[in-house]
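Question thread 4412

I'm putting together a teaching handout and wanted feedback from people who do this every day. The idea is simple: show students a protein as raw sequence, then show them the structure tokens that encode its fold, then repeat with a second protein so they can compare. Below is the first pair exactly as I plan to print it.
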Amino acid sequence: MPAGLSVHVGLNSVDPAAYGGWDGRLLACENDARDMAAVARAAGFEPTVLLTPEGTVDRVTAELRKAAGRLDDGDILLFTYSGHGGQVPDEEGDEPDALDETLVLFDRQFLDDELHREFRRFSPGVRIFCLLDCCHSGTATEAASQSGGEGGAAVRVMPAVRQQQLFERDREFYQELQRELRKNGVDGEPGTLLISACQDDQFALDGRVNGAFTEALLRVWDAGAFSGAYRDFHRAIRERLPRTQVPNLHTTGSPSPEFLGQKPFTV
């Protein structure tokens, strides 16, 4: 019988010492992580939840590598992230928009290529389902000025000026990391399906209880009453959100037709 493991990361703030005094305060990201873990548990996954100070690069990569060591062909990983998204210049040249999308983890930004590298550690036959409720997340499993959201809601993005300041401070670190990541091969890559909160050039709204994307997802899921496949799930979530925040469906590797045709969260 297939096994399912899940990792849920929710950051309501980041370490100001790592981000030049900015704490990135948000309201609903920890709730998102807890609620997605509840969905996963009910579907038969074994969940791990990392909240705010636990959401460091080392802890996230450690949990993903632990899961990679346990899951085999036919099994499934669910990874969810709620927090800020960011972008850093891609000075190694493999991104069409010349930007690497990032997850703004507690201690530093985690490049999309880093997340992709961790997913490549899994056996090629493992199904990987990724949900990202953050800004700039449209292709954030791949190798602008901040403004308020609708009704004044906060957006899950690091301010552009802060992003630029931090990149200038850490330029050598990110350049070396980008060069290192480009050296990794992609042989035997597992099929990964991402549904993200928005496109790479858009912002994702925070909320009082859940982020706008996670709230829409939970309503569509309806405690498991939803009966469509992944593309139907994405379409139904998209219909609940404004045109300023359009969820993306993106695949890497070669997810099998059987995987794509399953009901979401099927172990």
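The second pair follows. I'd like the answer to focus on this one:
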Amino acid sequence: MTANSSEPPDAAPIMILGRAFWGARTLISAVELGVFTELAQGELTLAQLRGRLGLHERGARDFLDALVALGMLHRSGGLYSNTPATAYYLDRAKPTYIGDLMELADDRGYRSWALLTAALRTGRAQSRETAGGEDLFKSMYTDEEAMRRFLRGMTGLTLPTAKAIAAAFPFEKYSTFLDVGGARGALAVQLAEAHPHLTGGVFDLPQVRPLFAEYVTEHGLTHRLSFYSGDFLTGPLPQAEILVMGHVLHDWDLETKRLLLRKAYEALPERGALIVYETLIDDDRATSAPGLLMSLNMLVDTQGGFDFTGAECVEWMLEAGFTSPSVTQLPALDGMVVGIKGTR
């Protein structure tokens, strides 16, 4: 608006953002009701969806049309259908399903985010699980059902990034890898399938082993992928030519981030590689809303975690001894930082 303009600025962007939870709750209700799973079988009318989902007449049409307006459904000739993205990620029958993450975020995360102002004033976690000083993952992993839902959702979310990493890094120069904090093995399976010469596995807490075994067995890769139990905070990392840390560093404070990078450097052989991938914040900290909001999520959910820029990760890698770290933007929200152990 210029100094002489008589028109006030548009309030719509402010109101839309201020009420963004309306859209989020609409999507999560659709996930809970199984809207996208029902539509995976084919197009349905309003009446058919009402009957299958058990929706009351009041609100049903607005609910489904809101999903259309939000870009989560298509509607043509009175028939509703999934979009390519919701068909891929929100059909419970698919291995790419990420709806569990949304329901967990609603169940656990919304309460924490409601206390964001308190977190900003105190610097302390606000989640029910971590406000008292408990570690988020150790707390979550004591609940087997919550652990399964979280790791299933992370599998679906990781697959596109895993495929991109498999294509973006010169794995042909290496023969072994280990995914640190790799959970069920989504990345490990993708790397093994894309590069048949590789062997490797996952290093994670003991509770994760049965879920890893199930997933790897489903993909017929038990002869090439192994599980290593341990806690990367309390002991050394297993050795491999490539170590991967995906969505691991952001859970921890700066001191722990640096500790994990040093441990990775010590575990790698000469010319070994460390791959870090995260929802990186842009270096100017001005355009990457997903990365900055994820960092606020770490504020309310963890004791010291925060997200970071690619440049910051490069700096920490150099401090740990890695040479010439490089940053690569991956599809969707993630970025990859690679460091090599070797002489300068």
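Top answer:
Good format. For the second protein you could add a caption like this: The two ends are 53 Å apart (CA to CA). The mean pLDDT is 91.
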